[in-house]
Amino acid sequence: MSTYVIGDLHGCHAEFVRLLDAVNFSPTHDTLWLVGDVINRGPGSLACLQEAQALGSAVRCVLGNHDFHLLVVARGGGKLKKNDTLDDILASSQRESLLDWLQSQPLVVHEGNTLMAHAGLLPSWSAEQALTLSGEVQSALQSEHSGAFLSQLFGNQPDRFRDDLEGMDRLRCIVNVLTRMRFIDAEERLDFAAKEGLDSAPEGFAPWFQFPRQDDLRLLFGHWAALEGRTPHAKVNVEGLDTGCVWGGALTAMNLETGERTRVPSQQGGR
C-alpha cells in the first residue's frame, strides 16, 4: 500500500495513464494525491477529470487556480480564455456531476506531518490554520450562494492576509495564497506579476519556500512549472511536483513513503 502524489495534470491524460502504469498504481490498495490544476491547457481535460472522479476514495485532490477558473466559467459567469481547453467538459453530458465533484474538493490536504496545497503555504500559517481557512472557502463553495462567491472570486486584492479580513476580501485572499502564490516579501505580501523562474522575482520578494517556518511540516505543492520541481535554497521541508508536462516537460509522481520520484515525458511537444 503506497501513497503517490502527482503534479499538475493540466489535461495531459495520456501521460497521466502512463504514469499510473509506471508506478503500478492500484486503486484498491494505493492512494493518489493530486496537487491541483487537473484540467486546462492540455488536450485531455475532460478525460483527466473523469479519471480523477472515477478513482473515488482512492484519490485526494486539492483545487488549483485553473480548477477555480473552470468553476468560475461554468457557475460564476466567467469567460473562457484564448488558450483554455475546457469546451469538452462544458459540453459533456457529465458536466454537472464533474463540476459537483470538483467543487467539493478542498484547498488543503493534511495527513500526519505532510500538507498539500496547490501553490504552497505562507510561512506563518500552521497546518491547523490552513485547514481552517480552507474550510471557510469550502463552506462558500458548498453554500446556496456559491455562484455569487465564484462571480466575485478573481482579483489581486487584498495582497496580504490579515486575520481581520472579512467577507469576499478574506475568501479571495485565502484562495490566492493557496492557489496562486509564488513570490512573497518579508511581510507575506503576494506578488502576482512574476510567473517565471527565480530570476523573475521583483525587488524585495523571494519564493515563499525561502522563508523559514516555526515547524518542520512537509509541504507538497505544484503550480510553478518554471521551477521544474526544484526548490533551490529552500528554508522549509518542501517538495515541488509541477515539472511542466503541459509545456513539454514531464509528469512526475512521488512516493510519499520513500520519496522516490517517477517521471514520464510529455507528449505535448511544448506549447
TrEMBL record:
Question: What is the residue range of the signal peptide feature?
Answer: none
UniProt entry tagged with the keyword Transferase: no
Q: What InterPro entries does the annotation carry?
A: ApaH, Calcineurin-like_PHP, Metallo-depent_PP-like
Which residue stretches, if any, does this entry annotate as coiled coil?
Answer: none
Q: Name one GO molecular function term.
A: bis(5'-nucleosyl)-tetraphosphatase (symmetrical) activity
- Give the Enzyme Commission number: 3.6.1.41
Pfam families, alphabetically? Answer: Metallophos
Keywords linked to the UniProt accession: Hydrolase
Record-annotated Calcineurin-like phosphoesterase domain positions: 1-121
EC category: hydrolase
Reaction catalysed? P(1),P(4)-bis(5'-adenosyl) tetraphosphate + H2O = 2 ADP + 2 H(+)
**Could you say which protein family the record assigns here?**
Belongs to the Ap4A hydrolase family.
Q: Read off the PANTHER family from this record.
A: CYTOCHROME C5 (PTHR40942:SF4), PTHR40942
Q: What does this protein do?
A: Hydrolyzes diadenosine 5',5'''-P1,P4-tetraphosphate to yield ADP.
What is the protein named? bis(5'-nucleosyl)-tetraphosphatase (symmetrical)
